[in-house]
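Exam prep: given the inputs below (a chain plus magnesium ion), describe the expected output before reading on.
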Amino acid sequence: MTFKNTLLSINDLTVTFSKSNCRSSIHAINHFNLKLNEGEIGCLLGPSGSGKSTVLRAICGFEHLKSGLIQLRKKVISSPRFEHPSHLRGIGMVFQDFSLFPHLTVIENITFGLQGLSSKNKQLKATQWLDRVLLLDKADSYPYELSGGEQQRVALARAMAPEPSLILLDEPFSSLDLELREQLALDFRALLKSRNMTTLMVTHNQTEAFTIADKVGVVCRGELLQWDTPYQIYHHPTNQFVAEFIGQSFFLKGIVLENDRIKTELGEMPFNSNYRTEIGQTLEVLIRAENVQLEVNGAIRATIINKAFRGAMYLYTLKLDSGTNIVAFNSSHHCLEVGEKIGVCLDNKQTPHVMKNPQS
Ligand code: ADP
Ligand code: MG
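Solution:
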């Protein structure tokens, strides 16, 4: 599918909150820029308190802008001097806690938000949406009679039924158990895509972000550090925080050689750099745990200092003779013990490695 038109555009957004008992203020969002195309699913990923919810709240019109501009289909909906009323923005929101009306049945929760239709057509539309989220048989149940995953599907149907221009999802799966989360994220993605619904979601869970999103934005301290496809975010982080926040990895010192190769403690390898490099320069290379191989007779030795079971794999932490700590995934069928010495090498097929900015 090709994405053509920009639907949501955020330019230079800054939102501040004043600190209680103090005249100073905190910049919850700091010169934030983002463009989301029609039909695209974007996901803001970042640690708790990084400003993700504040961005969604600003898009909804619940936060005052200190500076910047938010546009929907090229129309300004928020600026420091203008706020289009929230209920007229054509935005649907799904909150972390579902926020279903407890005294209304499932079908009443959905018909409640449908304006300008006869009651017969409201019923018809709500029934279609319940069918899409596979909850037709729960139409007359109350929210407390549903499981967490079912409540979340009702919340999504309620937000989508009025066919808004944009759907915002704030940590929609965070109160559900792990197993359910991934399946629900896949179901949500299929449903949103089937209706070509432009969506911006926030989460602090990278598996969820990668499962659902076309584009992922990594947020740290109110700034958007990178906005890219999940593949680019994982394999080509442009920033040290992004590199360390995503996946399991470590940095290793290396010296730049001729022919675009770099020499490290784990051997020579090709590399790919976002920065200009010179022969003889010392740099740090980002290496992912899945690119380190453990081999019984390897020449470069390391001691296992920790291990964590990850289902198909163990994640090992190892100390090289130089004292540097590295991480490596290895099949969980082959269990190595803490204290054991083992050979380590790099999987040469898995390049390029991304450079750490020497200035950062
Ligand atoms: P996230 O959703 O990424 O966890 P938030 O957007 O909720 O982060 O918060 C970003 C920052 O703004 C945090 O430091 C938080 O404490 C602060 N903050 C959020 N809302 C308010 C508020 N209403 N008053 C004061 N500070 C706030
Ligand atoms: Mg939040």
